[in-house]
Amino acid sequence: MVSDLNFEVSSLGKGAIPSPLKGSSFAKVGERVAFPSSLSELKEYFEAGKPVPSFERAGPGENIYFDPSKLKCGIVTCGGLCPGLNSVIRAIVLCLHHSYGVRRVYGFPFGYEGLTYRYGHEPVELTTAFVDRIHQQGGTILGSSRGNQDIGEMVDTLEQMNIGILFTIGGDGTLRGASAISDEIERRRLKIAVVGIPKTIDNDISYIQRSFGFATAVSEAGRAINSAYIEAKGARNGIGLVKLMGRESGFIAAYAALAYSDVNFCLIPEVSFTLEGFLNALHERLKKRGHAVIVAAEGAGQDVLGKTGERDPSGNIRFQDVGIFLRDQIHSYFKQTGTEITLKYIDPSYTIRSIPADANDSAFCLLLGQNAVHAGMAGRTNMVVGFWANEFTHVPIPMAVSKRKKLDPEGWVWNSVISITGQPKEMG
Amino acid sequence: MVSDLNFEVSSLGKGAIPSPLKGSSFAKVGERVAFPSSLSELKEYFEAGKPVPSFERAGPGENIYFDPSKLKCGIVTCGGLCPGLNSVIRAIVLCLHHSYGVRRVYGFPFGYEGLTYRYGHEPVELTTAFVDRIHQQGGTILGSSRGNQDIGEMVDTLEQMNIGILFTIGGDGTLRGASAISDEIERRRLKIAVVGIPKTIDNDISYIQRSFGFATAVSEAGRAINSAYIEAKGARNGIGLVKLMGRESGFIAAYAALAYSDVNFCLIPEVSFTLEGFLNALHERLKKRGHAVIVAAEGAGQDVLGKTGERDPSGNIRFQDVGIFLRDQIHSYFKQTGTEITLKYIDPSYTIRSIPADANDSAFCLLLGQNAVHAGMAGRTNMVVGFWANEFTHVPIPMAVSKRKKLDPEGWVWNSVISITGQPKEMG
Amino acid sequence: MVSDLNFEVSSLGKGAIPSPLKGSSFAKVGERVAFPSSLSELKEYFEAGKPVPSFERAGPGENIYFDPSKLKCGIVTCGGLCPGLNSVIRAIVLCLHHSYGVRRVYGFPFGYEGLTYRYGHEPVELTTAFVDRIHQQGGTILGSSRGNQDIGEMVDTLEQMNIGILFTIGGDGTLRGASAISDEIERRRLKIAVVGIPKTIDNDISYIQRSFGFATAVSEAGRAINSAYIEAKGARNGIGLVKLMGRESGFIAAYAALAYSDVNFCLIPEVSFTLEGFLNALHERLKKRGHAVIVAAEGAGQDVLGKTGERDPSGNIRFQDVGIFLRDQIHSYFKQTGTEITLKYIDPSYTIRSIPADANDSAFCLLLGQNAVHAGMAGRTNMVVGFWANEFTHVPIPMAVSKRKKLDPEGWVWNSVISITGQPKEMG
Amino acid sequence: MVSDLNFEVSSLGKGAIPSPLKGSSFAKVGERVAFPSSLSELKEYFEAGKPVPSFERAGPGENIYFDPSKLKCGIVTCGGLCPGLNSVIRAIVLCLHHSYGVRRVYGFPFGYEGLTYRYGHEPVELTTAFVDRIHQQGGTILGSSRGNQDIGEMVDTLEQMNIGILFTIGGDGTLRGASAISDEIERRRLKIAVVGIPKTIDNDISYIQRSFGFATAVSEAGRAINSAYIEAKGARNGIGLVKLMGRESGFIAAYAALAYSDVNFCLIPEVSFTLEGFLNALHERLKKRGHAVIVAAEGAGQDVLGKTGERDPSGNIRFQDVGIFLRDQIHSYFKQTGTEITLKYIDPSYTIRSIPADANDSAFCLLLGQNAVHAGMAGRTNMVVGFWANEFTHVPIPMAVSKRKKLDPEGWVWNSVISITGQPKEMG
User: Fold this and answer.
1) Looking at C202, C204, C262, C358, which residue is catalytic?
2) Band of the pLDDT at D428, cuts 50, 70, 90?
């Protein structure tokens, strides 16, 4: 139980410049948030005399590392769309401008492509006027792309443009890229901070309890689920099938099942099932209730499907499409059993990921962006802003990408899903 | 120009019972709404001494045909879902109950299936309590099915249950069925009225200017179009492709293009194009603007696709899927030209058709339902409730199904679409 | 019945310049839309040999009056906010630019104030980039103000700036102002067209069947009504009272009652009631059902309230606030009768009028704006764009402001309201 | 720093009956969640050898106290409406039924009134069918009332009806009532558990990091703020003033300011200001930017207003209305300074509190309800379900009501509000 997790964040050096933030309640030096919250776990550490794993708490410090009047910053958004990207961009620009007086902020277009020279993308100057109302719009004003680019070339760009802090907004792959950029910066002994804001609509980055856009996505998923329910109820033996995001973790599907109580089967990557087990359970449900609503996370049932062997430009393994697969399997199963069904398959992914952040995600994005700026100004690097036990934290990128956060099939979330859907705990 | 359109509606007989509606401003006997609104057209009729085609105006009459205390009514919903179905059901039940004192109203489950005995569906008693809040929910509380059933068997059911008025809520196919039922009733010399409420999310029933659910559908289509736009803008050479309803008429696609000005190409059944013409125009747009949003009605480009030769259970010809087709063609075209694109294809059909009616459709459904009841109580039969020149009207079913309403490629709607999308008037 | 209504629109002169609109299906010269749609009324005219009142149909003509390359246009928005103002502004700018090649369009800030020199408001250049996404935002990008300004001074401004077409978006008062401006222009023998787009959230301008923003307002009113219903149901003897717009006509309140069937009392200016009659009916309802929802149009019950004698800057008579009045009267009545009630009063006016146009209003605004441009380019003046029998029309301003459009207490809308609310037809 | 907070929860006795929950991962006996998360604070406790304050973790246990086949439960909702009330009721009923097999659940109508006999309210049987779709509706299906009732009489009712667990959903006042009921139960040596679900739209109950409905309220507040912004921008010297909930704590106003970046002044109870200071700052803002948006929490500026001396039926001190007060003060200030302004005042409170829970609150309500059932079944009493460090917890009611949770004027939330609004840190 007692592990040696180390959440020490890298730093370019000690901040020697007094912060221009007036009247701000500065974070105390060395303030840390404990990683375990369980009393017994904490006791174990203390009794064993071992250091309790903990995060540096985020927030403005009394001193800063960069001179705002000389500082130039860059922002890049990578990977798939996620509600709140523009809110984060805006928060970074506004905080740099209003709190620190940094006047030169550039956006690199279309993800890491924008940091190379081969695509010819021009950096965009991000003024406060430019970002004024972008948060009301989904997507990213900077554009995005998948996949990494040549690390050396990207650091060349930062060097040539004299960028002091690079803010990268992206997921797992982007963070690995950011870490590689940071390593190259260190190798070249440059003074460039790389600060990540974790973007994962699936909420599956480790050591971070909440990620922006997730709540908005769960909310929007409700439209598709409601359609599936209405369609299922509107036909004899009606089945509504919804595919939701969640390549490796089923948080969106699980929370959507909790939020919209019309889901009868929730399939997630963390919980295996056999096709036979699932189809039999579905058949039982139809016999009893005449309709069924199924929600399947993108990565559910991978052992049932078999891999395609392909990878997308971000390097993620390309899965066979679980929605199409289930749709076809359900059709042929009921054809065999001689039961007429009506199945409607809904894939709302693009509609979900392209909406703007809702109010709560919007406030959360603002705080994430501000804390990223505070961290960067303080010279922290190779880190992402996290959220733990209700506090914003600093997490070293290598820790954040060391493994995926998964939904615990024995934990309270999944237990509640089983309880509210009424689906069998085992389908296999 | 001067045509002999005849909109005379059938009647079971003269109403002899005084209406129980208190203080109501009854429709004047013989009140009619002119079909042409053009002054010059009207002149032609009058100058030629020819009868001006006109509709009987809907509304409560001073006398009614059925004795409310003995009357039993039935309601059936058929075909695909459409926003407002439950609002219409509710309006019929409430108006029968509160305005006329009719206490026995039955819903036949799952479309015309419910009027036969072979499926074993039990009629549902529709009380005012039962329908109280159903309008807040999409779909149809009665369930639906596609396709017709044995006409004789359905009339048997009506006869055995002693139904006086059958309200059928459905589209073209349903109305043909209703008309056949009405003919069989006449053949058997029964006194059963068949009153249709036209359901066409595509707004494509002739001689009816507005149909319920259409406006709600256009509105909801905006979500998909906005997603397509955000996705297209978020990627280098981003293309957003949205398939919307509209098998034979492009009203939804056209009005969505007018309502959401982010559409760059609107493809509808009424306007032909060649694949080459369209792809070249798309390429031009990408070169100039870097992104494009395409909206294609379900029935667009049929001459380009080729028919599948199949028919669905309602007897509609099954088209090849234009969305999938265009997606694949666009991909291969740009592969050939060596242009990297990012295409996102969105098919929001089920999500659109399963939402509840918006406020204005909701009010419209109420008025449709009330006018259907007034018509039925007056003994009108083999008719649908229409809307023309801002008035509710009676339309004989044979006229309503005689041809499809189409969008006029030379009319003001399509002209405005061309103007706001900026797409070439000819792509062929 | 046979009236001499004359809807002849003024014109600056015959258009001599061929329209640059390519491939457009031009409106036929002299195409007109009949004012009556009733067959018997039409017959009366023809049989009496009298001209049938009719509107000029809107749309692009083959020839235009102004030379687009030299033309400068102005836009002004006046009076209270209304959903769709920005959509209309945008439609005008885009149509002038894309369809006619007019490059110089100016917005006058803060209503007619912006046309005078005394406030020092600078005209804003309205480019296509500037108006690109303004339709997604409520209110008016130009700002507004109430009341008229010195007519001479306003025409001075137009003359000095060399404006060829002035588009005024506003209600009754604004149209009177526009007409006065037009008269002064004529007196000075200037060649300036004044084209109005009728803005009335209340939908109360005569000879125009639909006005933009009205449908959106009815829709948004539903939130307040639903709150009132939920609050009323949540308390013993709960009463929810909602005040809606409608100074002289009760269309919003009536349609909201039709759309949201939770309204039990709908009070509008067109239908008188006595306080005693209303309070007794309310008491009856509480006894029977334990809760009640009341919707009152702003101008309801004026004979009960008594005038304040004041006028607002637009010259409208200031009414006593019917919402506050009813709230207080209901409280004191039930205090007297010894019945404990819980009353929640909601006034959602600002929230309703400041939202953006919904999809259907948005499309409607686009078409209004385009038709206003076509009319202006053709040299039409002292007119507003109307909508009649499903066609866009030209209406002379003097006709449009000659009287208010009112809801007919004997017509089908109010009959349906009585039927769905269950309120007594007479409360007095 | 080292305090002796004691979060030990009362219990009716040891659970001796094996839980019927199949395959559930039961909470470990004695599992606790640490109250402090700061590493340094934790160290202090351990180094001082003092017990770390901690909460019992919520969740199903291996044994239960009540025999489900004999158990009868009651639910009551008290105080003002809050989004999610019906979701909590539904979660309790479904969990009791499906997880434990408890078949008899009763709702007491209209708050604590329903537990007395003097109002004649009949308890409502809450079946799974009855609660099926209530979560889609705002308010409370049970009705509510303010204020306490005679404790003895309420315990009489519980005793006579043989209720085993009473679930009370309410705020501070309700919890005090629940605690008094619990004390009386103990005095009578009855075996009745009293389990609270904390309802506070203001999120101001101590020792609980999140309360249901709060996030939905912040979200809905955005409509009013956006209206205020649009109205303010639409007029010369436009001011939009919005009053939000927050009698003693400004969380809603503060988070709304973070979520909707159009707020320029955020006034909350925790931060004092003088009228002069505020009005001067407002004047400065108008001079610079021409418009301003103000959000005031209900309890803001109490030292400026002066108390009314009255109390509402729940015993809360009645404040003078800060919204009306500020509106009037702003008007008279600018009249004196000779500046024409346009002020729009919006009070959206009823509209906010009566909407249904959004998706995330809905899921949260489900989990709260389930955990309340688990706690009750285990015999816990005089407690509320809490949420701390991402875990559901048990909190003794006396601790929860011992003081209000307040927004820390030196903490990161308020710092971010100051930063994003641009308002002066001190206005006094």
Assistant:
1) C202
2) confident
Question: Which residue is it, tokens 């939402």?
Answer: B355
Which of D140, D223, D230 lies at the smallest CB-CB distance from C139? D230
Residue B395 DSSP code: E
The closest CB to that of B351, out of A81, A227, A233, belongs to: A227
pLDDT at A21: 87
Residue C2 pLDDT: 73
pLDDT over threshold 90, residue C21 = no
Say which residue the tokens 């689920």 belong to: A225
Q: Side chain identity at B179, as an amino acid letter?
A: S
Q: Do C255 and B135 touch (CB under 8 A)?
A: no
The answer to whether B143 contacts A235, with C-beta atoms less than 8 Å apart, is yes
Contact D350 C228 (CB under 8 A): yes
Tens of pLDDT, residue by residue over C223-260, are: 999 999 999 999 999 999 999 999 999 999 999 999 98
Sole residue written with tokens 């003074």: A191
CB D376 within 8 A of CB D167: yes
**Look-up: residue for tokens 């703007």?**
A356
Q: What is the edge-to-edge ordering of all strands in the sheet holding A54-57? A: A32-34, A54-57, A391-396, A383-388, A193-198, A165-170, A72-77, A104-108, A124-125
pLDDT at residue A304, as a whole number: 85
Domain ranges of chain D: 10-211+355-400, 219-353+410-421
Amino acid C231: pLDDT = 97
Q: Which chains touch B (3 or more CB pairs under 8 A)?
A: A, C
- Chain B interface includes C229 (CB < 8 A): no
Look at A260 and D65; give whichever has higher pLDDT: D65
Q: Which member of A67, A150, A202, A361 is catalytic?
A: A202
Whether domain B221-352+409-421 has CATH 3.30.565.10: the reply is no
Would you place residue C146 in the very low, low, confident or very high pLDDT band (cuts 50, 70, 90)?
very high
Q: Is the pLDDT of residue D132 over 70?
A: yes
The answer to whether B37 faces chain C, any CB pair under 8 Å, is yes
Q: Write the CB contacts of D282 (distance below 8 Å, at least 6 apart in sequence).
A: D239, D265, D292, D294, D330
Q: Which fold has domain D10-211+355-400?
A: Rossmann fold (3.40.50)
Chain C and chain D share a number of CB contacts under 8 A equal to 84
| Whole-structure pTM value | 0.95
C236: left (phi over 0), alpha (psi -120 to 50) or beta: beta
Closest CA to D84 of D206, D243, D174, D212: D212
Confidence of residue A199 (pLDDT cuts 50, 70, 90): very high
Residues with pLDDT less than 70, chain B: 1, 23-24, 27, 29, 306-309, 312-317, 319
Q: Round to whole Å and give the CA distance between A262 and A240.
A: 10
CB contact under 8 A, D236 and C119: yes
Contact B164, B73 (CB under 8 A): yes
For residue D321, indicate whether it is catalytic: no
pLDDT at position C27 = 66
pLDDT at D1 over 60: no
Please determine, looking at this structure, whether the domain spanning A220-354+413-421 carries the CATH number 3.40.50.460. yes
How many angstroms separate the CA atoms of A425 and C21, rounded? Answer: 67
Q: Answer whether residue A235 shows pLDDT above 70.
A: yes
What are the Cα distances from residue A387, in Å, to A57, A372, D326? 9, 12, 37
Q: Which CATH superfamily is domain D219-353+410-421 in?
A: Phosphofructokinase domain (3.40.50.460)
Pairs of residues, one from chain A and one from chain D, whose beta carbons lie less than 8 Å apart: 156
Q: Which of D235, D171, D217 is nearest to D197 (CA)?
A: D171
Total residue count of chain C as it appears in this document: 428
Contacts of A145 in chain B (CB under 8 A): 235-236
- C137 contact residues in D (CB cutoff 8 A): 230
Task: Summarize pLDDT for C199-211 with one digit per residue, the tens.
Answer: 999 999 999 999 9
Radius of gyration over every alpha carbon of chain D, rounded to an integer in angstroms? 23
**Cβ separation B22–C425 shorter than 8 A:** yes
